[in-house]
Task: structure prediction
Amino acid sequence: MDEERKAFEPMRAKLKEQPLPKIVIPLVPNCDGDPEKVDWAKAVVLGRWFTVDGYPIKRKVNARLAHDGEHLYICLEEELPTNMLQNSEQIWVGDDWEVFFANQREPPYYQIAIAPDGRFAAITYKRYRIEQGNWQCNAKILSKILPDRWVVLASIPIKNIPHSNGKFFANFYRASFTLDEFRFREFLAWSPNFAIDFHLLDRMGEFSLGVR
Result:
């Protein structure tokens, strides 16, 4: 463990003890399922990210969420030199964003993985990593690669997201090649699992759909 990580261990221990996030997703005017119509200035921002095992990062990563009563809208963004982004035949082997959903912090659960070229996979799991199948979520995904940032815009019909009375659980991840050593990968999380694993559900945030 390097000296910087050693110095962060007391703060990492406090992070483990913090209550799990509870987020209210703002209601925005109807966007007809088109994430490009969303006024993202009115969205809630998930701006504090870590490595998946709970260490601080210097990378500029955030997610934004909004809903219009019919669709959940997601904006995922990282500022970086985008000529470093790598697509892979298997989406989760290259650069990708991954979003996990569940009705509770336990299986079954649902995953969307998104590559820089806009390909995405939507998967459902009956148990941890196994008994998987296609998730018919009818998501609309747009991947925008600008010179200084990678932006993904997504919409998912709320009826296709596992929820109870407008409440669901979710987590957001970014798998990436590091900026300084291209051969290594880095795994980032909005709500860290304190393990190198995106499929752990006990650290999911709790989300509810806001009303006017």
Summary: The mean pLDDT is 93.
